[in-house]
Amino acid sequence: MKTFSLSLMISACLALANVATAQTQSAAPAAPVSVYDEHADARAELNQALAAARTQHKNVLVVFGANWCPDCRALDGKMKAGALATLVDKRFVLLKVDVGRFNRNTDLAEQMGVPLKKGIPAAAVLKSDGDVLKATGGGELADARSMGDEAVLKVLQDLHGKG
C-alpha cells in the first residue's frame, strides 16, 4: 500500500510540474514581428519605389519606423486590412524605412522633412519624381496602437492631399 501511495504522489508531482512548465512556456513573450528590414539600403529601395510609382501612376508613402516600436508594428497591421489597405493599395507604393534606435536612415527622414524626434512611426508622401508632397511633422502616427482606423485613414488622406 505504501508503494502505491508513493507512486501516486510521484505521479501527481510530475503532473503538476508538467502543468507549471506548460504555463511558463505559454507565458513567454512572442518575438516581435519583423516589419522593417534592418539591413535594407533605404536609398536604393526608395529609387525602386519611385520607379514603381511612375509606372503605376501613384505616389510613394514612406513610413519611418523600427521593429522594436509597438506603434510601428500596429500601424503596419492596420495598413494591411480594411479601408486603410484599400487606400494604401490604391494610392501608394509603400516603402518602410528602418530607423533602428534613431541611428539609421535619419538623414533620409530629415531630407524629407520628417522630424523623427516627434515620434515614430512617421511618414512622408512623395510624388513619383521624388518631390515631397507632405510629411508628418508632429508625431501624428506615433500613437498608432491606440488610434482607430478612421484616425489613421485621416492622417494618410491628409498626407496625400485628397479626401
General description of the model:
- This protein is of the alpha+beta class.
- It has a single domain (42-160), classed as Glutaredoxin.
- Helices cover 48% and strands 14% of the residues.
- The protein has six helices and four strands, in the order ααβααβαββα.
- It has helices at residues 2-27, 42-56, 70-78, 82-91, 106-111, 149-160, and strands at 59-65, 92-98, 122-126, 132-135.
- A four-stranded mixed beta sheet has the order 2-1-3-4, with helices on both faces.
- β3 (122-126) and β4 form a beta hairpin.
- The longest helix has 26 residues, at 2-27.
- The radius of gyration is 23 Å and the shape is globular.
- The termini are far apart.
Lay out the secondary structure.
Blueprint: H1 2-27, H2 42-56, E1 59-65, H3 70-78, H4 82-91, E2 92-98, H5 106-111, E3 122-126, E4 132-135, H6 149-160
Helix pairs in contact: 4-6
* Named CATH architecture: 3-Layer(aba) Sandwich
How many β-strand runs? 4
Query: How much helical structure, as a percent, in the residues?
Result: 40-55%
Query: What shape does the CA trace take?
Result: globular
CATH superfamily heading: Glutaredoxin
Structural class: alpha+beta
Q: Please indicate the count of domains.
A: 1
What's the average pLDDT? 86
Computed CA radius of gyration, to the nearest angstrom:
23 Å
Instruction: Bin the strand percentage.
Output: 5-15%
CATH class: Alpha Beta
Distance between the ends: 81 Å
| Annotation field: number of helices | 6
Q: Report the biggest beta sheet as strand number plus sense, adding barrel if it closes.
A: 4 strands, mixed
Write the element-wise H/E pattern from the N-terminal end onward: HHEHHEHEEH
**Low-confidence spans:** 12-17, 19-26
If you consult CATH, what is the topology?
Glutaredoxin
Main-sheet strand order equals 2-1-3-4
